[in-house]
Amino acid sequence: MRWVLDTNVVVAAVRSRTGASNPILLAGFRRKFEWSCSVPLFYEYEDVLNRAELLLDFGLSRETSARLINAIARAITPVEVHFRWRPQLGDPDDEMVLEAAINARASAIVTHNARDFGAIPARFGIEVLTPATALRRIMT
């Protein structure tokens, strides 16, 4: 399984240990699936996880955030973006996720915003999974 995680899944995983996103993130660290990520998407993870308001909400220090970002960097499989497929979607941030998935030849995008992707990923043979559905796949 080669998946691309939307930033909202990473944020939800840090925000709460009770939802499906947290075990998905841990499964990525444990290499239960191949976590593919492009440089622009990684930079988005880094940017969002370093936002002051989120650090306050999460009760995280900058050092803890840096350790998390380093752990993500070690866990991901880097994806080179050879072809830009934009525009396909309405949101540029979603475009970045789709572009990473297409170039990685990912089997799925894991996101909390499946409706934002619509049927477009299917044109490239990519499923769009909620974290709960992705977690069930890992556990079977």
Main β sheet profile: 5 strands, parallel
| Gap between N and C termini | 13 Å
The CATH class is: Alpha Beta
- The number of distinct structural domains comes to 1
Query: Taking strands numbered 1, 2, ... along the chain, how are they ordered across the largest sheet?
Result: 3-2-1-4-5
Q: How much of the polypeptide forms β-strand, as a percent range?
A: 5-15%
CATH topology: Rossmann fold
Any low-confidence stretches, pLDDT <50, length ≥5? Answer: none
Shape: globular
Radius of gyration: 14 Å
Write the H/E string, N to C.
EHHEHHHEHEHHEH
Give the name of the CATH superfamily: 5'-nuclease
Number of helices: 9
Mean pLDDT: 92
Secondary-structure-derived class: alpha/beta
Number of strands: 5
Second CATH tier, the architecture: 3-Layer(aba) Sandwich
**Fraction of residues in helices?**
55-70%
Summarize the entry for a quick read:
The protein is an alpha/beta fold. The chain contains nine helices and five strands.
Please give a structural write-up.
Helices cover 57% and strands 13% of the residues. It is of the alpha/beta class and 140 residues long. The protein has a single domain (2-139), classed as 5'-nuclease (Rossmann fold, 3-Layer(aba) Sandwich). It has a 5-stranded parallel β-sheet. Helix 1 crosses helix 2 (21-29). The longest helix has 14 residues, at 62-75. It is globular and about 40 Å long. The two termini are 13 Å apart.
Features:
13% strand, 9 helices, 5-stranded parallel sheet, Rossmann fold, alpha/beta, 140 residues, globular
Question: Which helices and strands appear, and what pairs or packs with what?
Answer:
Elements (H helix, E strand, L loop, with lengths): L1 E4 L1 H9 L5 H9 L4 E5 H11 L2 H7 L3 H14 L1 E3 L12 H13 L3 E3 L3 H4 L2 H4 L3 E3 L1 H9 L1
Parallel strand pairs: 1-2, 1-4, 2-3, 4-5
Helix pairs in contact: 1-2, 2-9, 3-5
